[in-house]
Every structure is written in structure tokens, then in C-alpha cells.
Here is the input.
Amino acid sequence: MLKQSRVSRWGAVLALVATGSLALSACSSSASSSSSSSSTTAANTKPKITHVVSIYLENESYDSAFGSSSPAVYLNTTLRQEGVLIPNFYGTSHVSLGNYISTLSGQTPTPTTQADCLSSFDPVTPGTPTGTMGQVVGTAGCVYPSSVETLTDQLDKIHPPNPTTHVASWRGYQQDMGNDAARDGGTTCAHPATGGKPAIAASATDGYVTRHNPFVWFNSIISNTAECQANVVPLGTTTNNKPAASSPLVKDFSSLSTTPDFAFISPSVCNDGHDQVCVSPSAAGGTTGGLAAADAFLAQWMPTLLDSPAYKDGSMMILITFDEAEIGPPSTATACCGEVQGPNVTQNGINGPGGGQTGALVLASSKLIKPGSTDTKGQYNHFSELRTYEDLLGITTGGSDGKGHLGFAGQTGLQPFGSDVFNG
Here is the structure.
């Protein structure tokens, strides 16, 4: 199901260079007498990205996550050597939930998403279009109306879900989801009924929180109960610090035919680094939280992705980032990329225009990126991230700009990842 009617993604990417939609360049501008033929050969043998994976950790500035004193040793050694570091990657808002929502839909925060929607699971009100970049009016509530599209809706149009096998073009993997079914939302795709209270604080067995699950805040997703329950799934379990073979993520990434085009991985509220002292199980052991727990989580689960057929054949890109910098003074609420103020709040970052500098790490085939490199030129945020995914996965129509980019991902002048990231 996933592999039917594939366009040549890399060919599409190269075509976008000419239009400025995706700023990829040739690997070298120094030419020899045989440069034309060798460049053609290189272009024809480049891998095509047909799978993207987002892993979201929590609440760290670039310096604390990637600086010399960071406790995230695995992230800053093993994974840094595999990928390209983007220092100038920014959150789009404070606090957490607005960033998850912007990544999936290009929407900017409302007063309630800016407060993590902790009290009640209610519709965005009034939810009417503003006429600006696909944004809707939101003075209360957090669940967006079905008129607000997401990346999952775009992918469903390209590769409709199979109702028999449930092989899907997208999937969300939520750690600990369902460990306490009543707490997490029972059989309702891990969200409470309208007016119910979202899962907030961890329990001894369950670190899933609703605000770190981007999928359940859109009626276009949760109104299709069967698809939502099939595609928003638990991450799985570990045995002796290794993912169990029965884990949904392990099973899905074991073959190309079941690897989703888009995957979003949310660790538990302990293992994403949010909780400094953990109540739910910690990948680092005991009650250890913060970056140490997030790093231990990556060490447990990243080998499954790096050893997967899709990563090994060069068709997968993995992005590891943080939703936002730790909220505080205006210096932690900086923005980039010409981010403009949304229509529903005074400042997207509460104390400033954005979610602060977090940094990000991109991993892909060495034919696409230079392992162990650092992007010293690019500036990106969660809207750039969404735009990159849409371009790489062949979405070219609709959206706020008519070219397939949703919400603020369609902002004029916003750049997806370019040759500074794809620097192989």
C-alpha cells in the first residue's frame, strides 16, 4: 500500500530547486571536463527520501542540549557522528502544545493551546477562518475543527488507508500510551471525551500525556475513529534496554512495505526530558529524568531506526529536536525565519515572538548529508520542518499557498531544509 504510485521524490526535490521551493544544490560547483556526466550519474544514484521520522524531546535550549556540558552523551557522540547538527533551529511558540500543533498543521497558538490545554478537552471556539495563512480564530478550546487540515490528511489523499491491513502512510508512536487505559482515554484513540480532562501528570506505570500527542487535537483525525486507533499507537516496550520484538515501532520498521511515510515519536513525559524527577519508568533507571533520561531513551530506540531497511537503503530521514527552549526571559522566546505573529495571542512565545533556539539533528544517508557536520548557515523552525516534509513526500497542491504547504508553512519566503542540511 505504501509503495504504490510513487513519484521520484528526489527528482521532485531537484525540480523544486529551480523554483526556490527547496534550496538543494549540487554537491560541488568545481567542474572538470567530465563534470556534466558525473553529476548526472550522481543525481541518478542519490537516494530518494520517502520516509521521514520526527522525534520530539522537551524543553531544552540549544546550549543545554548540544553544548559541551550536556549530559546527553549518546546524542552528542554516536548520533552527532551520524548526522548534521542544525544549531539555528527554533520552536514556534511557548509552551509545549502549540509547537506540536504547528508541526502537524502550521497553526499558531491560541490562548488555551499556549497553556497546554490542561483542564478540558474542548473544541477551538469559534474556529472560524481568519482568511490569513489558513489560520482559524481561537479564543477558547484546543481541538481544531475538521476544516483544519494536517499533514496526515495530505498523506491520506496520496495513499488512502487500507481498511483491511491498516498499513498506513502515517503513524504516531506514543510511549506508555494505554498502560492505564482509563487515564489515557480508554478506547478513544488516547484522548478524553469532549469536556473530559486530558492525561497530565505521570503515574507510576504511565508517562503518556495528551499534550505531547499532536494527532488528537484535530477533528479531521479523531473523527475517523478506526483510522486514528490504527495509526496512533503505543511505542512498545523494552527488555534489557532493547525494544521488544512485539513493539509496534519495531514491527512497522522491520520492512519497507510497513514503514510509514511519516512517523512521529513521543517519548513518555519522563523519557522526553520534561520531568526532572520521574514518577513513571525512566530509561535511565530509578527516578532519573531530564536530558539524561531523554538520552537513555534515544540509546534504547534509535538503533531500531538506524538498522531499519528504510534507513539503510537511504530512503529515510530522521529529525531529533526539542519542542521549545525552557520558558523564561525573552531570550528564551526568540524566533527565526521571519515568523509572524499569529492572530490569537499577543506573542507566540508569551515573553517573545517564538519558542526559542533548540537546535536539531538530522540523520540520513551519507549520500544526502555529511555525517558529523554542522549547518552554519541555515535557520529553521517547526513551520520549516512541516514544509520540508510536505516537499519531500510529494505534496504539491492545496494548503495556504496553493502549493501544498499548510498554515504558516506556506509563508512567503519560508525555506525548507536546503543544501546546508542536505550537504552530502
Q: What stands out?
A: Residues 290-306 form the longest helix (17 residues). The first strand starts at residue 51 and ends at 57. Residues 9-26+34-410 form a domain with the Alkaline Phosphatase, subunit A fold (CATH 3.40.720.10). Residues 254 and 307 are 9 Å apart (CA to CA).
